[in-house]
Amino acid sequence: MKILLVNPKPVDAYTVYGPSLGLCYLSGYLKERGLHDIEGIDLNLDSHERLVEAIRTVDLVGVYCSTKALRQSLEVAVLAKKFGKTVVFGGPHPSVLPEDILKNKSVDFVILSEGEESFHALVEAMQGRGDLSSIDGIGYRCEGTTVIKPRTKFIKDLDTIPFPDRELFGFDYSKSVTFCATRGCPYKCSNCQPALSLQTCAFRMRSVDNVIEELRLVARGKQVHFIDNDLTVNKIWLRTLCERMIEEKLAIIWGCQGRVNTLSGEIMSLMKRAGCINVGVGIESGSQELLDGFLKKQLDLSRAEQVIAQSVEVGLPLHGWFIIGIPTETLADMSRTVEFALNHDFATVGFSIGTPWPGTVFHAVASAHDWILTSDWEKFNEKLFSSLQTTDWGTDDIATKRQEIICKFREKDWIVNESDFVFINPYWGKGPVLRAAVWLFRRLRLNHVTKAVRRVVRTVRRRLS
After folding, report:
1. Out of 3.40.1260.20, 3.40.50.2300, 3.80.30.20, 1.10.3720.10, which CATH number does the structure's domain 173-429 have?
2. Would you place residue 409 in the very low, low, confident or very high pLDDT band (cuts 50, 70, 90)?
3. Residue range 382-402: average pLDDT?
4. What angle (nearest 5°) sits at the alpha carbon of residue 88, between those of residues 82 and 94?
């Protein structure tokens, strides 16, 4: 059987980190079991013409589907059906809304969450070596009825999964690689799509030996982007991993996502020695009431302040993630969030606009209160605008607040990326006195340059006249 695995192009910009690691894992798993005729198409890298050419020659088309790229994923399915191919969808969106996906006649099967075992079982069944009804975590249509078999089994030992097939796509990994050392998430945050808990079951870690083995093979001397939701959950495991990175002299630099309640000055210092150059932490809100209430973050802002200060002491930059536009949030809460982000020593800060992704508590609450303004998933955009109208605020309020945030950071001389809603702190790591001195120096130099330019313009005008 010939298989094509497709990563569609989402609406917004493609991450520079690399193509879908999930599809690479799937390919590696299938190849280890004797299915070697597998091709990959990443529409962030490959042309539509190459996609058409590839679809013509295969039997089955597997499509990774996120909520953001739903339309693009369905376009691939429609194209595949024109050539009479079997189409299988996997990824976050079909995992939480399998019935909705199967309403599209161009999609034959959906795989719910962790795909390796189920996808392989499906391929075996299609070749007469298994029964569809016995496959865990799958959805399909049978005699006019939609059959959904929720996932009940997960891969307990991640070391048994072969390393991802990074040759599946034509991506240049010579300088950097994406990497995954864990699966799942132990937290139940209300704003997060359950790809992190319901979809992938309990938090699991690969052994440190297994991680180091893969790093030796693919990452030596490169930049590594850990895409784990939280690499810092288990401090003993993380400490062992960092120590092994140092011992192995891998010469890598890396970044990851973490959590302030598991970070400390000691562990951040060790991470830096092991090559870590940045850690993203989801603070989300400057309102402790909102964190404890709707968001259920299990995060204390005073603890966050300590970790931020410690990160400066050890010289490990933190990126702070924040959200505005959350159910039960007030405009005053939003202002507190902005002030927290602006007045603490983050190296970089990223904001997003609260978005009711399907399957989340966020979506359930917003839907129950009839706050969601559109059912078009493509119009959900956490960087540019809100899709909610609550009793406390609406889309115009969020648009105003977004512009206010941009202006506030500009006033403090932060470097602003408006489209990504991200801000870079040019004074990171400098004490308050030095920070003020640098700010004053920059302003004085700017005024000096401005005056000089004006003098030149006046002189030229006089001579031309």
Report:
1. 3.80.30.20
2. very high
3. 94
4. 120
